[in-house]
Write a structure and sequence with these properties.
Order of helices and strands: EHEEHEHEHHHHH
Helix content: 40-55%
Number of helices: 8
Strand order of the largest sheet: 2-3-1-4-5
Number of strands: 5
Strand content: 15-25%
Largest sheet: 5 strands, mixed
Shape: globular
Distance between the termini: 5 Å
């Protein structure tokens, strides 16, 4: 069975307006390293605000994309929101993930170019799979949800993605009361997001198991 991988290619929106670029670059480097370690992948930043993350399994790809955007929004500057365009492609691993070469890498890069010409900030391309309008609509829904997050919403979502913890445990990490965590999760629409990511994980995992 051929291995299926996922490639996330992205860039920071309006990065030229960022005043503290060293902090932005450190954040990207740290976030990519953490996600690469968590999923056994390979991440790198290039041309300043550009980045790529290759994962050895396709299933967690959308969760990783959301986690990257959550980290950027959480650490936004006071007068400027940080966010990114991220194009996810899932497909065959022709040369492994470290080589950064092959159809899946090319598809992810082309999809990012397409995002730059529109208003969407998130996309999913599945190579060797029929076009699925339902999945495309779900990705649009997640993208729209993220666009409405405050740094507080992004922070609590990021923690929820990294830790399978109760609201009380999250409250202790954040130094706030549990009702405040509940409110932040509700504003971030975490229940819907979590279910949507679980569904996308299942659909991407299905493709991995097909001969």
């Amino acid at each position: 069975m051929p291995q299926r991988i996922a490639v996330l290619t992205g860039d920071v929106i309006d990065s030229r307006k960022v005043e503290d670029r060293p902090r932005l670059y450190r954040l990207l480097d740290d976030s990519l390293a953490e996600l690469a370690s968590r999923h056994g992948g390979h991440g790198e930043r290039f041309r300043g605000d550009g980045f790529q993350l290759a994962l050895p399994q396709a299933a967690p790809a959308m969760e990783a994309a959301v986690a990257l955007r959550a980290a950027l929004i959480e650490h936004s500057e006071t007068h400027q929101r940080w966010d990114a365009r991220i194009a996810v492609a899932a497909g065959p691993a022709e040369h492994g993930i470290a080589a950064a070469d092959g159809a899946t890498f090319v598809a992810s890069g082309r999809a990012l170019d397409a995002l730059a010409d529109g208003v969407a900030h998130l996309s999913l391309t599945r190579l060797e799979a029929p076009e699925d309008h339902g999945l495309a609509l779900l990705v649009r829904f997640i993208d729209d949800m993220i666009d409405g997050w405050s740094p507080y919403s992004a922070e609590v979502v990021g923690l929820s993605l990294r830790h399978d913890a109760s609201q009380q445990a999250l409250a202790e990490r954040l130094g706030i009361r549990q009702p405040s965590v509940h409110k932040r999760l509700r504003v971030a629409r975490w229940a819907l997001l979590s279910d949507s990511l679980d569904y996308l994980r299942e659909r991407l995992a299905e493709q991995e198991t097909r001969p």
